[in-house]
């Protein structure tokens, strides 16, 4: 999967095609999130005047439990090429310093954005950092002769080194040239990987002690936009210590150090904040759990309506203080999801409903979907179990009628008891393969065929007995 040339990322069709690899059915939901994602990219191509006026169309996904809402979000995050966080609405209702404050979702998103941009920039400068690390390794393996002024060595633009020996006394010049020849030999050996086990000794900077973490860890300060840890680290004198290790390990550390030096963090942060503001996506799961104008006084929880009120300004667009500076939420895309069993979207406060103009319902899954979920996704359960047991030398074969039977049983149990959607497949599969999972590899039976008969025999006693199935399946 590649970014498109026009730098707008995947087209809606491509996004759906990617989602299809993991999620069966739920076509409309996939289509809507794909459009929403692409619209962010389209907006970025607009002229500034109109761009500011185009707000994201937030989405609510509604559907029973276990039909793929969270799964869509999880897969989407991998395709977004954008800062993406998934939060559970319920965590803002918990007690203990009022759960977490709602604005923390924007701070988390910004953190993700900074890491994203940082990684991108790092891969850009990695090559240069590696070169510089090699130079340092060479210096460690063969230190330059004493007295030789470092000014005799100059770094040229391309990273290649030229030596300026103009004006040096003759003998020093000679010594220098001898050193240079040896250095070239060692460089060759280094490149050929012959020196990987050789020890080198050098200075590294030590991280500030746990003291700083403790002092900086207090709540509240970050909310004020202060990077306490960073401040402390700047204030305390930098400590170094001498370490000794083989070249192969030293190279990694030295490269990381060079990356740090080459990385322009101010630029990274600036770009990251912009990326978050323009393309960030927040997925709010379990939004149904904060619906309802719940009367306060039911236990110690923060009122659900209170959380909705806190959410409102963020979703409507406001500025949140983060340790990377102000982040405006005007154009962040919010996708919410919830089962809405006990509540309805209309139980959300009206202002919040208005901020989620797009509604999409996910369907209940049937036998046919279960059958496909068992086999089609890249990470389908049958593929997982086959691979797991293969590591024990056991060959598990799922026949077509076996899979039909599993799907049918899952559906039946869901109908008779609580409908937990595709999650039922997990409990059933686990039960089916319990014995072989336990016995492998101490078994002579190196092959297990999961056909209709096997499934029926293993499950029949349990499915018939309602009490038993409540516990086991
Ligand atoms: N349509 C589907 N296609 C493939 N796998 C699915 C589908 N629906 C559910 N699953 C699988 O079932 C499990 C549960 O799904 P998911 O977490 O998306 O449920 P949900 O809709 O978010 O439910 P809840 O409302 O309880 O949070 C996941 O591991 C997922 O792989
Ligand atoms: Mg979920």
Can you summarize this structure?
By secondary structure, the chain is of the alpha/beta class.
Tell me what the structure shows.
The protein is α/β, with parallel strands linked by helices and 473 residues long. Helices cover 50% and strands 13% of the residues. The protein has three domains: 12-113 and 271-361, P-loop containing nucleotide triphosphate hydrolases (Rossmann fold); 126-264, no CATH class; 367-472, Helicase, Ruva Protein, domain 3, CATH 1.10.8.60. The protein has helices spanning 12-20, 27-44, 48-51, 69-79, 104-141, 170-191, 210-216, 228-235, 247-262, 265-279, 304-316, 350-354, 367-375, 381-390, 400-416, 423-432, 434-439, 452-464, 466-472, and strands spanning 59-62, 84-88, 153-155, 161-163, 199-206, 239-246, 281-285, 319-322, 325-328, 333-338, 358-361, 395-398, 447-450. A five-stranded parallel beta sheet has the order 2-7-10-1-11, sandwiched between helices. Strand 8 and strand 9 (325-328) form a beta hairpin. The longest helix has 38 residues, at 104-141. Mean pLDDT is 84; it is low at 1-5.
Calculate Rg over CA atoms. Answer: 30 Å
| Share of residues in strands | 5-15%
CATH topology of the largest domain: Rossmann fold
Low-confidence stretches: 1-5
CATH class of the largest domain: Alpha Beta
Largest sheet: 5 strands, parallel
Number of H- or I-type helical stretches: 19
